[in-house]
């Protein structure tokens, strides 16, 4: 197993670009002590690292993971080869339960900017792994060491995604570039390389990222305004043009000139609440430094975020005067070091950029927990979070309307949909809300919140406008909410639930009827994470109001008693008898309209043995061909089985509905935790439903912890031979 772990490490590193100016790798082994194999600046080639891993010897003894996390802290310091500007990752691999506390040492590392991925093999404790990573999406778990190879690509993909924000979505950005006499041709090229790198990371387009640029020395010259170019290549081609440098450095004059660039007339979307960003790059002191502070302050007060990059003799106090604080400044010794700023500046652009939302019209009510279960500081964190979210929605012309209410001792309506507040006043009112306190009777609150969507309150459901209710709660519902939710659903209100703290997804499910519309977070502090905010915007914009006119269904068979060469239906006459009518029923949803008179087209693929399944419209002849299939042997419903079914969708359009339908004779000794984890991953990847029919004649609930897609019928257990089983499955689809 130790050898398999070493192979896993070498396979991961083979997918990473390693070198003095690229990724640096270190390896530490731990048991009840830590043992340095090599630190970050020891080796810079794949072969050297691979050879060193091969020479590792197993320590044995106990599993003191918390102690190891504390010891690892020093390995992310310059003394051990870490670089100040480099992103920091720790990949922890363990097969045992930690015998010491892990929460605090892991948090200390994460607080210093280290992203921790936890890889657990069979005996590892899932709860501890999540405590270490601080985020369940950074945890990977497999049943045995042989299965480590199945997560290699996924793990590296997650590392790369977090290392490098690939696509900056919605932003207006102006580059202000020093072209004074102190800059030679080679240095100018380094400055343009930085600018072009940032442009390449942006989704340039009139509705996404708009880019403008200005060069200056004694006088400013606009190279191009915001919105001039609607694609990356045109922006890059213009920036690549050779330009003369010369003259003195009048930085305040250049900044003052950008005022005109941040106007609607010249392409700015500042009135549409799109974030405005200015990056200035200079290598010297300003000749009009006395005007610098006031000029920059005027821009910042207008809502423009300024990031100041200084090179060589640039004055740090001037950089801070422009940016407004030290955190928004960067200073390097020479132009060659500008490449060290690629990632930090790119991350700032990612952070400040908005998440795109294609919803054109919506009535959106945020309904949050103001009960005694939420502390004052947690309540402030929650209201600040909601205030920040609003920046992502186009509230111009009242196309999207925002309402707010809270629940606790009563039901205070804070902001009705018919409000006419400006965005700054709306945000101010949210941030000054007084907590209601009391017991969280969410059942009573849901009964009352429907009035928020009434026409008299500004709701537009009669005009066909999307109705969305976002519930933020710190507790599971104490009383039954089914009747209240049914009323909301009948009114066409889409309910999303965000549970924070001591909540359980299965208890929140009656509020949505769809587990994909539930997000659970460990604590209120996670609301301050920019990534969480962007994820929540995506959930709001994508979870309600979408329809699928194509559905792909993969049908799998899990029969653990099969022997090599036996017919597929051997020993299961009920399956052979009922399957044709079930397939007829589930494909009959093609006669249901999915909007605008379009019928749903259902394609089915049957996954048996290792044969590549083919999607096709169902006909009786397909079932007849299944009767001729002989199996390769027994199958087992585990995480790998689910993954093999999921891979059948690889070449299908992501816009299609995607459903797994499995006929199973039971779990046997398979790990439910692994199945739940895999189910969550598939759901996050886009699977719409995972439905399991028991081949045992008595109903079993062993599949309920990882099934999803039954809506409000989630407590019903499906069994072969059940009356109208096909119609029930059809209803879920």
TrEMBL record:
<dbReference type="GO" id="GO:0005581">
    <property type="term" value="C:collagen trimer"/>
</dbReference>
<dbReference type="InterPro" id="IPR036465">
    <property type="entry name" value="vWFA_dom_sf"/>
</dbReference>
<feature type="domain" description="VWFA">
    <location>
        <begin position="363"/>
        <end position="536"/>
    </location>
</feature>
<dbReference type="InterPro" id="IPR002035">
    <property type="entry name" value="VWF_A"/>
</dbReference>
<keyword id="KW-0325">Glycoprotein</keyword>
<keyword id="KW-0677">Repeat</keyword>
<dbReference type="GO" id="GO:0030020">
    <property type="term" value="F:extracellular matrix structural constituent conferring tensile strength"/>
</dbReference>
<keyword id="KW-0732">Signal</keyword>
<dbReference type="Pfam" id="PF00092">
    <property type="entry name" value="VWA"/>
</dbReference>
<dbReference type="InterPro" id="IPR052229">
    <property type="entry name" value="Collagen-VI/PIF"/>
</dbReference>
<feature type="domain" description="VWFA">
    <location>
        <begin position="1"/>
        <end position="155"/>
    </location>
</feature>
<keyword id="KW-0176">Collagen</keyword>
<keyword id="KW-0964">Secreted</keyword>
<feature type="domain" description="VWFA">
    <location>
        <begin position="172"/>
        <end position="349"/>
    </location>
</feature>
<protein>
    <submittedName>
        <fullName>Alpha 3 type VI collagen isoform 1</fullName>
    </submittedName>
</protein>
<dbReference type="GO" id="GO:0005576">
    <property type="term" value="C:extracellular region"/>
</dbReference>
């Amino acid at each position: 197993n130790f050898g398999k772990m070493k192979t896993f490490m070498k396979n991961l590193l083979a997918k990473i670009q390693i070198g003095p100016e690229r990724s640096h790798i270190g390896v530490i082994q731990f048991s009840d002590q830590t043992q340095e194999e090599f630190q970050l600046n020891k080796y810079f080639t794949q072969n050297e690292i691979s050879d060193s891993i091969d020479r590792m010897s197993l320590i044995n003894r106990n599993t003191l993971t918390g102690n190891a996390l504390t010891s690892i802290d020093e390995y992310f310091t310059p003394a051990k080869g870490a670089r100040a500007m480099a992103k920091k990752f720790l990949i922890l691999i363990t097969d045992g339960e930690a015998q010491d506390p892990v929460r605090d040492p892991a948090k200390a590392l994460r607080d210093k900017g280290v992203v921790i991925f936890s890889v657990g093999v069979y005996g590892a404790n899932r709860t501890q792994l999540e405590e270490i990573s601080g985020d369940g999406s950074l945890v990977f778990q497999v049943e045995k060491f042989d299965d480590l190879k199945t997560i290699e690509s996924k793990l590296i993909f997650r590392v790369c995604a977090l290392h490098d924000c690939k696509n900056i979505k919605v932003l207006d950005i102006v580059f202000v570039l020093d072209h004074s006499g102190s800059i030679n041709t080679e240095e100018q090229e380094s400055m343009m390389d930085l600018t072009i790198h940032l442009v390449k990371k942006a989704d340039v387009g009139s509705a996404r990222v708009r880019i403008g640029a200005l060069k200056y020395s004694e006088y400013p010259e606009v190279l191009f305004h915001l919105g001039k170019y609607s694609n990356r290549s045109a922006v890059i081609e213009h920036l690549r043009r050779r330009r003369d440098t010369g003259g003195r450095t009048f930085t305040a004059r250049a900044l003052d000139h950008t005022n005109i660039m941040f106007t609607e007339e010249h392409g700015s979307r500042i009135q549409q609440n799109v974030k405005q960003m200015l990056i200035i790059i200079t290598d010297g002191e300003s000749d009009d430094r006395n005007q610098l502070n006031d000029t920059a302050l005027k821009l910042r007060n207008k809502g423009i975020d300024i990031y100041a990059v200084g090179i060589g003799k640039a004055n740090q106090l001037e950089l801070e005067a422009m940016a407004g604080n030290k955190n928004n400044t960067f200073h390097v010794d020479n132009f060659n070091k500008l490449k060290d700023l690629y990632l930090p500046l790119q991350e700032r652009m990612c952070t400040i950029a908005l998440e795109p939302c294609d919803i054109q019209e919506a009535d959106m009510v945020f309904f949050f927990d103001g009960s005694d279960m939420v502390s004052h500081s947690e309540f402030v964190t929650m209201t600040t979070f909601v205030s920040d979210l609003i920046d992502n929605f186009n509230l111009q012309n009242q196309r999207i309307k925002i309402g707010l209410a809270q629940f606790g001792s009563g039901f205070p309506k804070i902001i009705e949909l018919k409000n006419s507040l400006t965005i700054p006043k709306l945000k101010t009112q949210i941030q000054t809300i007084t907590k209601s306190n009391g017991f969280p009777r969410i059942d009573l609150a849901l009964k009352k919140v429907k009035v928020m969507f009434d026409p008299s309150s500004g709701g537009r459901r009669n005009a066909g406008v999307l109705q969305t209710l976002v519930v933020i709660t710190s507790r599971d519902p104490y009383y039954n909410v089914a009747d209240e939710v049914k009323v909301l659903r009948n009114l066409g209100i889409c309910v999303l639930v965000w549970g924070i703290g001591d909540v359980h997804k299965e208890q929140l499910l009656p509020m949505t009827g769809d587990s994909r519309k539930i997000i659970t977070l460990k604590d209120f502090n996670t609301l301050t994470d920019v990534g969480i905010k962007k994820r929540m915007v995506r959930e709001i914009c994508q979870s309600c109001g979408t329809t699928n006119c194509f559905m792909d269904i993969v049908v799998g068979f899990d029969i653990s008693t099969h022997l090599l060469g036996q017919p597929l239906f051997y020993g299961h006459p009920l399956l052979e008898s009922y399957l044709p009518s079930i397939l007829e029923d589930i494909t009959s949803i093609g006669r249901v309209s999915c909007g605008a008179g379009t019928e749903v087209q259902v394609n089915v693929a049957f996954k048996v043995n290792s044969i590549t399944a083919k999607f096709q419209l169902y006909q009786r002849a397909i079932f007849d061909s299944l009767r001729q299939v002989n199996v390769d042997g027994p199958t087992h419903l585990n995480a790998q089985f689910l993954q093999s079914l999921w891979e059948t969708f690889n070449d299908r359009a992501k816009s299609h509905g995607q459903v797994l339908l499995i006929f199973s004779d039971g779990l046997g000794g398979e790990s439910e935790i692994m199945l739940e984890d895999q189910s969550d991953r598939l759901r996050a990847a886009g699977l719409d439903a995972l439905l399991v029919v028991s081949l045992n004649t008595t109903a079993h609930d062993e599949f309920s912890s990882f099934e999803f897609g039954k809506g409000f019928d989630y407590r019903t257990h499906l069994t072969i031979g059940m009356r109208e089983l096909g119609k029930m499955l059809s209803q879920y689809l």
